[in-house]
Amino acid sequence: MKKIIILVFFTMILLNVSIFADAWIRSANAGFVLNGNTYSDNWTGGEAGTMAWKLLSNLMAEKQINTKINTRNTLELIFGQTYNQDIDTREWSPPLEGTDRIDLESVLRFTLGWVLDPVIAVRMQSQFYDNRVDDNERYINPISLTESFGVARALFKSKKNELIIRTGAALKQSIDRNIIDSETSEKATNISNEGGLELVADLNTRTADERITYKSKLSIFEALFKGDEGNDDYWRYPDIDWENTLSAGITKYLTVDLYVQLLYDREIAEKPRYRQSLALGLTYNFLSSTTE
Fold first, then answer.
1. Nearest 5°: phi and psi at 38?
2. N or C: which terminal CB in the chain sees fewer CB atoms within 10 Å?
3. pLDDT band, residue 50 (cuts 50/70/90)
4. Which of 34, 71, 83 is nearest to 56 (CA)?
């Protein structure tokens, strides 16, 4: 497990180095969001204060290595916490995890001039801190690894707009080191393996002045087999992850972001899960590509 974590961090370091290397630069930005409200000790309305902050960064490096090979690497890091104030005592609670996300993906596309391009992709999804179990906190847990190979098609691709769809076979590993045996109270690691078919659609578009951007990523995974099938057939249902981010720049550094995610995993919940966040924060684009 330590080797896996070291490998993940080593990959992140390489990705950051590649982004700063000339001819790899495409886009890189970082942001900080803070929102909250407070009330005086003698406030009689019954309200209590809340405070939330979030740090985020999005890095992307793409290069046409030669006429036949294109590589695209993306890294999304988000971490935030929320504080709540007690209505009666006015004391602030310890920080609660708000947003926590690590998403690293590398896609190798062979541009051979065919109708469909052969493609190989690797994706790692996790979070910085996992405190679901008391006295058993874990960092970089749980981890989801997906390796896929198939074909891709760029329906349209320019400096401002692109839509790339890929599909093929995929293998997925889920690693959870935060398992406590209910009978023996011993700590354990749960590893599950499954394979099947995957469909991924990436849409990126922006206005001519680049003040408004919209990003959408739809991932659908249909398992055909699983190493440990368990006592039900819920794993046979498709897993759906649809993320949407709409960003509008008010000034050079001030932006409004609307994030909406729809998740469906029958093994976790019977109905689809949904979350959204609307935030006003500071964003700085420290790298930007001018390649057409």
1. -135, 160
2. C
3. confident
4. 34
Number of structural domains the chain divides into: 1
Mean pLDDT of 270-291: 76
Domain that holds residue 17: 2-37+49-288
- Is the distance from CB of 190 to CB of 176 less than 8 angstroms? yes
CA dihedral (104, 105, 106, 111) in degrees, to 10, reads: -150
pLDDT at 292: 42
CATH number assigned to the domain comprising residue 199 = 2.40.230
Strand partners, 248: 212, 256
